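Nuclear transport factor 2 family protein
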Amino acid sequence: MDTRPPLPPFSRETAIQKIRLAEDGWNSRDPARIVLAYSPDTVWRNRVEFPRGRAEAQALLERKWARELDYRLIKELWAFEGHRIAVRFVYEWHDDAGNWFRSHGNENWAFDDQGLMTHRHASINDQPIKAEDRKFHWPLGRRPDDHPGLTELGL
């Protein structure tokens, strides 16, 4: 069976590592790669969709990035215990008409012993913003290590 370190139970340090790995994966916008961090029978709640399994999760991500263009994400630790991590996140994106949004949310994650995410429960709110109010300006892909996080940005 595949493992995805760091493995639970999580310490503060390993929870932060796990979160950064998830952020990096999602910033790649590569659904086929991203779903490998989830268990084959993963269960999600994402807005109005409730995918089950990697194939449905991958399809959700493919639809997501066909609609959410120039997506850039930052995740931050909220809490952790044992096999669970709670994060808050913000991402910026625009639609095909050039309208920009900042999406704010929280996720609750549960992991199996191999470090694969078995459950992802997300609550997300979209805030329309002006292009000049964007805060995430790095090139598409991984957020640079020296880029401020959510707390430093006042988000």
